[in-house]
């Protein structure tokens, strides 16, 4: 399975026609086209397999016509409890525009700290005031209720560059 996911990861970044300034509705529509994509760790291929970061990388590639960057290998473990560097948050800060968590809007990227004392390890896209789209480990890309459990674990809220 590991070799398969790395192969998909390597083939995932594909040049597409860029959207000059994406709207929130375009971002959400693009994310919904990933629904049902099977969960595969470190993959980013719509319809074939992705993880939560692969979903964001895939959307970025669709919107801007190029992948933002190639992430280093990372563990699939959401349950890390040790304080450490924040590779997911740092990458989001390099490639996206950080906003405050005061008002969630469709099309924003959410980064979550699943374990309060551990690093941020999960991400998704706000679909509506009550839902977000993310790759669910062991299943697929789903649209889930943005419950209190999730909102209490938000470590960062970001916009895709140039969103209108």
Question: How would you describe this protein?
Answer:
A hairpin with a 4-residue loop joins strand 5 and strand 6. Helices cover 27% and strands 20% of the residues. The protein is globular and about 40 Å long. The protein has one domain (2-71, 80-159): endopeptidase fold (from Nostoc punctiforme) (Alpha-Beta Complex). The chain has 164 residues and is of the alpha+beta class. The N and C termini lie far apart (39 Å). Strands 3-8-4-5-6-7 form a 6-stranded antiparallel sheet. A two-stranded antiparallel sheet has the order 1-2.
CATH topology-level name: endopeptidase fold (from Nostoc punctiforme)
Tell me the CATH superfamily. endopeptidase domain like (from Nostoc punctiforme)
Radius of gyration: 14 Å
Q: Give the beta-strand count.
A: 8
Q: What is the CATH C-level name? A: Alpha Beta
Shape: globular
């Amino acid at each position: 399975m590991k070799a398969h996911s790395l192969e998909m990861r390597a083939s995932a970044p594909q040049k597409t026609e860029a959207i000059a300034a994406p709207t929130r509705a375009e971002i959400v529509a693009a994310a919904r086209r990933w629904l049902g994509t099977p969960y595969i760790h470190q993959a980013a291929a719509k319809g074939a397999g992705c993880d939560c970061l692969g979903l964001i990388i895939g959307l970025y590639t669709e919107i801007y016509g190029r992948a933002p960057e190639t992430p280093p290998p990372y563990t699939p473990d959401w349950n890390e409890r040790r304080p450490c560097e924040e590779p997911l948050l740092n990458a989001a800060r390099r490639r996206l525009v950080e906003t405050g968590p005061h008002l969630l809007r469709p099309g924003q990227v959410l980064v979550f700290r699943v374990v309060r004392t551990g690093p941020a390890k999960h991400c998704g896209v706000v679909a509506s005031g009550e839902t977000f789209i993310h790759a669910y480990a062991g299943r697929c890309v789903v649209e889930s209720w943005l419950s209190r459990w999730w909102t209490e674990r938000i470590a960062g809220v970001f916009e895709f560059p140039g969103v209108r």
